[in-house]
Fold this sequence. Notes:
The protein has one helix and no strands. By secondary structure, it is mainly α.
Amino acid sequence: xxxxxxxxxxxxxxxxxxxxxxxxxxxxxxxxxxxxxxxxxxxxxxxxxxxxxxxxxxxxxxxxxxx
Length: 67
């Protein structure tokens, strides 16, 4: 998430606790990769998410295939 002006002086690892809700971000990510990287979202068995402020806002994800 982009860093708002009132907290620019704080640590960059500050968690983002307002909208957008994390479940909406999850749905966006799943919709973006469905049919391209995964066949369906039912194959996803584990997920760790966090929202943090950063100078370069982005979405990062790592996919690991289970055996």
